[in-house]
Amino acid sequence: MITVSGHRISLIQESSDWMDADNARIQRWHRGPAPLERPSRSGQLIRLRQQFRREATERRNRHSGDRQLRVLAYSLVLGRGASPDEDWNTLQTEAEQRGYAIGARLHDVAVPVTTTYFPGSGAGRGVYMPPWKRPGWGEVERLIRGGFADGVIVLDRHNISSDDDEYHAVIKELGERYQAFVHLVIPEEPSAPT
Question: Which residue in 113, 160, 155, 158 sits closest to 137, CA to CA?
Fold first, then answer.
């Protein structure tokens, strides 16, 4: 049988509280500073796209309110035998729902990029091509630069680039230099907080 006086229990409790607090402080110190939360890059890209579309709409309303916004349909198909027809149908439907008039339909063929190279084989020799080096995308930029379109409509951002910096550069170039916008059928997904 163990008997403990009330005073002794209180001392044990106080030292236990002190040790718990000290252990918590040590654990926080070892973890380092809390990570800084960065705003979602997807959120920035969405806002930038929407800003340039809004500006194009306002410009159109000031100059000729009854004219539809003119867009070019662009698709990046996967493989030489693939057809952009399914993308065209989706892009046409989206354009009609948004009140856009589609001008030219342009596409490029994605060059597969493989990460493993086997000597003596054709595998691993794929080359990624940024949008500004693709002939179809070059035509998109030429037509927009010439004033034949207010923007470009694509299925998703990966038809332009999966790289955030490249994608951002394309949006800014079209918006700031040519007052054009990018419309995505499938918007960017905001990244989940980490």
Answer: 160
pTM of the predicted structure, to 2 decimals: 0.68
pLDDT in the model for residue 70:
95
C-alpha distances in Å from residue 49, one per residue of 42, 44, 149, 169: 11, 9, 16, 11
The confidence score (pLDDT) of residue 5 equals: 52
If the chain, 194 residues long, is cut into consecutive pieces of 10 residues, what is the mean pLDDT of each piece? 49 52 52 46 84 86 81 91 90 96 94 54 58 95 95 95 93 94 88 45
**Contact of 105 with 73, CB cutoff 8 Å:** yes
What does the pLDDT read at residue 6?
A: 52
Residue 67 sits at φ, ψ, to 5 deg, of -80, 140
Tell me if residue 73 falls in helix, strand or coil: strand
Six token digits for residue 75: 């698709």
Tokens of 135: 């002939």
Query: Which token pair is 125?
Result: 């020799």
Print burial letters for 4-40: b (CB count within 10 Å at least 16), e (below 16): eeeeeeeeeeeeeeeeeeeeeeeeeeeeeeeeeeeee
* Measured distance CA(95)–CA(104) in Å, rounded: 13
Amino acid symbol at 30: H
CA-CA distances (angstroms) from residue 187 to 26, 38, 50?
44, 20, 11
